[in-house]
Amino acid sequence: MFSFKHTKPESMSKDNVSVVPPPTNFSSRKRVMRFYNTPRIIGRMSVVGEKESKGPLGKYFAKCETDDKMGEKTFERAEIRMFDTAVRGAVRDSGLDIKDVDLLISGDLLNQMTTSSYAARDIGVPHIGVYGACSTMTESLLVAASFVDSGYFSNVLCATCSHFATAERQFRFPLEYGCQRPPYAQWTVTGAAASIVSTNNADTERFPKIVMAIPGMITDFGTNDLNNMGAAMAPAAMDTMCTLFTQTGFCESDFDLVVTGDLGKLGSDILRDLMRERGMKLGQNYIDCGNMIYDVKQKCYQGGSGCACSATIFNSFILDKLVKGEYKRVAYLATGALMSTQSCYQGETIPCISHAVVVESPFGGECE
Questions:
Q1: Which residue in 44, 203, 283, 348 has the fewest CB atoms around it within 10 Å?
Q2: Structurally, how many domains does the chain consist of?
Q3: How far apart are CA 79 and CA 114, in angstroms?
């Protein structure tokens, strides 16, 4: 049986890191990125729709909309407006001005990243579009931390969004069709979130820090059902989580929270089984964002999904806990299903990915 070594290395040390042997049937490719200048998250904003505001975490979100169209003519225009609100709110929360932002890194679910591109047109800062489906937030944070850690930029915006109505229309059926949802389906979160990643200095050292990241590898276990996102993405989360626990010297007990997003109830149960098969038992400090955002009484089947699901939770509830020191270290593994609408209709299976970032509180976190 596989067992963790509980000798704790220093999180910033390059040398003498205790690495646990990898489990069987797992790639040992080295892909852990350590940020020795520890970029800081100095501003954030989460905007959600009415349904999300009525869930268990409603009180943590910075802004809750009551109109799904937000006064716009279409759901797509509403999504752009929501994205813009999150970005400008994060800038305001950081105490910066939009002219102080060096770069915007963002993505969304719509074809050709429509929401991000149209919003960036009006925001007016250099833009890099990234597409990781529901993993877009961690992908953006990973790229931003790399730019800031290396000294290329001082202030980088990371943002993403999703909207139930736009995603359903693109990936499944128009709302007017009234299609019955299978019991293993998830509910796309209506929301947007943004973070400001900045240089570590005397002015920013009081903010949470990104200490490492893991770029994901494409995994495909043969799922081809557009509704069964949890089953499709769970192997990708397993792959990145195994890397986290075998190549960093950390074990699960070193984290106050290990969070995936968004596998939902079914997908997170599958992930627990996959990890158990590899000798790694996930305990009570593991949870999935899809399980957190809706109450069971809201009848959202297996829970939440969409780019905004984990992004809004990370930029509200999780960062709140890190800022206050209630969490010292969090592993955030967002997952994405990288199918197109046409590939699945043609019988293709769904390739998936999971990127991870490890964020520590300014009040501690380094292993002793």
A1: 283
A2: 2
A3: 10
Write the CATH number for 161.
3.40.47.40
> Across the strands, what pairs with 304?
187
Q: Are 159 and 140 in contact (CB under 8 A)?
A: yes
Same domain assignment for residues 136 and 235: no
87 and 164 fall within a common domain: yes
- How far is the C-alpha of 203 from the C-alpha of 120, rounded, in Å? 28
**pLDDT of residue 367 exceeding 50:** no
**Same-domain status, 59 and 96:** yes
Can you tell me whether residue 236 is helix, strand or coil?
Answer: helix
pLDDT tens track for 221-263: 988 887 888 999 999 999 999 999 999 999 999 999 999 989 9
Query: In terms of domains, do 326 and 183 share one?
Result: no
Task: Among 153, 169, 198, give the residue marking a domain's end.
Answer: 198
pLDDT, position 342: 74
Clarify whether residues 270 and 345 are in a common domain: yes
Taking phi over 0 as left and psi of -120 to 50 as alpha, with beta for the rest, 39 belongs to beta
- What is the model's pLDDT at position 151? 96
pLDDT at 26: 59
CA dist., res. 289 & res. 263, Å (int): 8
Q: Which amino acid is at 261?
A: G
Length of the chain: 368
CA distance 252 to 278: 14
Q: Does 184 lie in the same domain as 74? A: yes
